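Annual report, structural modelling task.

Input specification for the zinc ion complex:
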Amino acid sequence: MNIVIGPKEERKLISGYFTVANIFCSKCNEEMGWIYIRAFEATQRYKEGKCILEKAKLMKEY
Ligand SMILES: [Zn+2]
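The model returned the following structure:
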């Protein structure tokens, strides 16, 4: 999948604080979801690098 990663930002989620970034389609620039860049808590580090895709948008595209 071709994605572009936007600016990093800190976000407070239910599971703690994370550095995240929105991700965009490299073809049409539409926002597709976001990615965990860094977890502040060790127990959440397994999420680093994982994308959260917004399925409704994916279905529209494919
Ligand atoms: Zn696209």
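The CA atoms of residues 22 and 34 lie 4 Å apart.
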